[in-house]
Specification:
Layout: E1 2-3, H1 7-16, E2 27-30, E3 33-36, E4 45-47, E5 59-60, E6 69-71, E7 76-79, E8 82-85, H2 98-114, E9 121-124, H3 129-137, E10 143-147, H4 152-163, E11 170-174, H5 177-191, H6 196-214, E12 219-221, H7 226-230, H8 234-237, H9 250-258, H10 261-275, E13 278-280, H11 286-292, E14 301-302, E15 305-306, H12 308-314, H13 320-323, H14 330-333, H15 336-346, H16 356-368
Helix pairs in contact: 2-3, 2-11, 2-12, 5-6, 5-16, 6-10, 15-16
């Protein structure tokens, strides 16, 4: 009835109000209520209007099991009386001791990635520092990268795998237009979302997951959470000038990104589970979150370099060339965004039209009905 943690741990977190009780996220039914961890690392839904949302038939980890699913908010408990916020993320002051901050991140990251059980495990590997650090913790697990021919992610993954002595472990999932046309309607059903950005991000993950599952793996290690926790976004690096963030500091902008995790993780977890693999995200363990939240501006972004603290921690796990490499966002690095746009235009949905890609997505969904 609970995923991600045992009932005693979650009860203790409820009683103490501790938002980070040493888990990698949890959700499910506990003592006649639905609960979901503070970062929403486990998706959870209940039937809208259910008299008792904790009744077995009224809730699920998969929104497709319900006729009118309503997500349980991260950090909340849902009962017949409504939603109650149980936990909020800590807002610690910035750590002023640089060495202590870096040591805390290094210890937390190393413990998390090396603590992953590699039984039935594959790694989603894009060649960036996030997935490389995860792969370093499970040296016997094969690595998978998705992308269209000539894409940045495939080239980066090959370079990183070679540098890490893992070239023979790398399996390339070469994407095609048929893959996109087939996967988009499936993902719309899985996610309950139609917007192109979510689909472009989920597509490579979903197709890597399906390939790994077909190869006999039932778990997929991912680097999710690193960009949000460690300042990996360009809009964070450009704060406060970037209009996409409200904060007036890099640290404040990073905190804004952390608060987007519940929505993003719902998308990624649902896509991977539907593909046939259970996601494993060691960089989202509570110990890593606790170490990341106090990082000062200069250990997030410095001299145009992002994820400073994570890269420093990575130097103990991967070659320097891999620890320092910059990488494109998955939707651009795999060409998923470019090729979905190309397909839309080939189908007559030109860029001069409002929301031309979403219109194309809707047309694919209609064809499947």
């Amino acid at each position: 009835m609970l995923r991600g943690a045992d009932p005693e741990t979650v009860r203790a977190a409820v009683d103490s109000g501790d938002p980070l009780p040493g888990t990698a996220g949890f959700a499910g039914e506990l003592d006649g209520a639905l609960v979901r961890d503070v970062l929403g690392r486990q998706p959870l839904f209940s039937e809208r209007g259910a008299a008792d949302p904790s009744a077995p038939s009224a809730w699920s980890f998969d929104r497709r099991d319900l006729s009118d699913p309503m997500r349980v908010p991260a950090g909340s408990r849902r009962t017949a009386a409504g939603d109650e916020e149980l936990w909020t993320l800590p807002t610690p002051p910035a750590e002023t001791n640089r060495a202590a901050a870096l040591s805390a991140v290094s210890d937390a990251v190393t413990e998390s990635v090396r603590g992953v059980d590699d039984h039935g495990l594959a790694v989603a590997f894009s060649g960036g520092v996030d997935s490389a650090v995860v792969a370093a913790g499970v040296p016997d697990a094969p690595c998978y990268v998705a992308g269209f021919e000539g894409s940045h992610d495939v080239a980066a993954a090959r370079d990183a795998a070679a540098a890490m002595g893992r070239g023979a472990d790398l399996r390339v999932v070469e994407l095609t237009h048929d893959d996109i046309r087939g996967a988009v309607p499936e993902l719309v059903s899985i996610l309950g979302r139609m917007n192109p950005m979510d689909l472009q991000i989920a597509l490579p993950l979903y197709l890597v997951g399906k390939r790994a599952a077909a190869d006999g793996f039932d778990r997929l290690a991912v680097g999710q959470g690193a960009d949000e926790l460690f300042g990996g976004y360009a809009k964070v690096a450009k704060a406060p000038e970037d209009p996409r963030v409200e904060a007036d500091t890099v640290r404040g902008a990073a905190a804004e990104m952390v608060r987007t995790l519940p929505d993003q993780l719902e998308r990624d977890v649902l896509a991977l589970r539907a593909a046939g693999v259970e996601p494993v995200a060691p960089l989202l363990h509570d110990r890593v979150v606790r170490a990341a939240l106090p990082l000062p501006d200069e250990l997030l972004v410095a001299d145009g370099r992002r994820k400073v603290a994570l890269r420093e921690a990575a130097r103990g796990l991967v070659p320097e060339s891999v620890a320092s490499v910059e990488k494109k966002a998955v939707q651009y690095g795999t060409y998923a965004s470019r090729e979905l746009d190309r397909l839309a235009r080939q189908a007559g949905y030109k860029r001069r039209m409002d929301d031309h890609v979403e219109k194309y997505v809707r047309s694919l969904v209609e064809e499947e009905r």
